Amino acid sequence: MARWSEYDTDEERLPEGMQRIGYDADTQTYTFRDADGAMWESAPGNQYGQLRRVNDTTLPSYTEDDESSPTQRLTYGRPEGSGRRASWRQEMMPLLNWFLLVGLFLLVMVWFISRGSRGSTEVVRSCDDGMTPYKIKAGDTCWALAEANSVSLDTLLKNNEGLDCDKLSVGETICVPTA
Length: 179
What we know:
- The chain crosses the membrane at residues 95-113.
- Keywords: Membrane, Transmembrane, Transmembrane helix.
- Residues 132-176 form the LysM domain.
- InterPro entries: LysM, LysM_dom_sf.
- By secondary structure, the protein is of the alpha+beta class.
- Among the domains are: 10-79, no CATH class; 131-177, Roll (Membrane-bound Lytic Murein Transglycosylase D, Chain A).
- It has helices spanning 10-13, 88-118, 142-148, 153-159; strands at 19-24, 29-33, 39-42, 51-53, 73-75, 78-79, 131-135, 173-177.
- A 6-stranded antiparallel sheet has the order 1-2-3-4-5-6.
- The longest helix has 31 residues, at 88-118.
- The radius of gyration is 38 Å and the shape is rod-shaped.
- The termini are far apart.
């Protein structure tokens, strides 16, 4: 069964040439006119759904088991057997929730995986005698640290095996040789 939204119009729901022409608030029925000028009425409380042709003198009864009635019927606002299809938007609407859930699940998985791999790259260094531990701050570079401690950049890199000057992390500890 298709889902309808408040943004769908009569042109999308009704057959070609059929238009809504009235509403009776007392009986809560909508009245429609088709291209041939015949009048149709909805069941009480339903804007769309099964429609019945209105006779000139009497109104049809609206019972569930009224299959033997001589009145004609429209189902879902379209005559039975008409070749008119629902728009692609209406056909794809049930899949929207499924795609949203799958997308949300994938985003959470990517976030979880990237968060878990971030913590495993930290290297714990223990400084030998003649070296001072230094905690990296924002804006620090290997060159600036070597200059500030009066050591060469090669000596700083040699004493901190595996140090990548392009990827210094704030809070990472390195060993700086004392001059």
